[in-house]
């Protein structure tokens, strides 16, 4: 069976390869990522992961893998940091607070059946000084990322507490992903 990664994220590809498997192909899903009215962050992350998996064409014998990472402050879904101004706003909101990183993963097996799992990781940032925020924005690594930060880089020094899946915060919860891929029939050690 061949694995198809429904993501062009280099982080997700690298994380999948940590499981000892290289996707046969990578495909970019094209979906509307706007939250639905009154949609909870959990429901949003799960929905997007499944929609991304279903948005990619599947050939006979292929297994599709997709994921979504959502940052939530309470019931608020935070947008990705598409601009430095949005990133600044996000980092100010996360400064000194706990937030949830919801990392959903969906696997569609060779028969076309989808299964979805969610890793909910609690992350607490130290109180960030405005100079730290500006220096982090200037380094460029958090731009375009959920919550405006990349935990695998300089932002890891801002984390005073983490409970859950570190790989989920990066972009794909490996424990849940491995379980789903094994249940779909992929041979993993």
Explain what this protein looks like in three dimensions.
- The chain has 189 residues and is an alpha/beta fold.
- The protein contains six helices and seven strands; from the N terminus they run βαβαββαββαβαα.
- It has helices at 10-18, 41-54, 84-94, 130-139, 166-170, 174-183, and strands spanning 2-5, 25-26, 62-73, 76-78, 98-108, 114-125, 159-163.
- Strands 1, 2, 3, 4, 5, 6 and 7 form a seven-stranded mixed β-sheet that branches.
- A hairpin with a 2-residue loop joins β3 and β4 (76-78).
- α3 crosses α4 (130-139).
- The protein is elongated and about 55 Å long.
- The relative contact order is 0.19.
Structure, briefly:
The protein is α/β, with parallel strands linked by helices and 189 residues long.
């Amino acid at each position: 069976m061949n694995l198809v990664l429904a993501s062009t994220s280099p982080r997700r590809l690298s994380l999948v390869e940590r499981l000892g498997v290289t996707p046969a192909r990578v495909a970019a899903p094209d979906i509307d990522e706007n939250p639905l009215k009154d949609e909870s962050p959990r429901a949003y992350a799960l929905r997007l992961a499944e929609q991304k998996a279903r948005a990619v064409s599947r050939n006979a014998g292929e297994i599709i893998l997709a994921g979504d990472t959502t940052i939530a402050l309470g019931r608020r879904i935070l947008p990705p940091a598409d601009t430095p101004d949005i990133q600044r706003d996000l980092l100010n909101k996360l400064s000194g607070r706990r937030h949830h990183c919801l990392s959903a993963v969906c696997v569609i097996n060779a028969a076309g059946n989808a299964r979805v799992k969610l890793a909910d990781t609690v992350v607490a940032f130290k109180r960030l000084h405005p100079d730290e925020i500006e220096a982090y924005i200037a380094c460029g690594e958090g731009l375009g990322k959920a919550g405006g930060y990349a935990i695998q880089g300089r932002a890891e020094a801002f984390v005073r507490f983490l409970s859950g899946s570190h790989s989920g915060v990066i972009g794909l919860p490996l424990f849940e992903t491995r379980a789903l891929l094994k249940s779909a029939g992929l041979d993993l050690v």
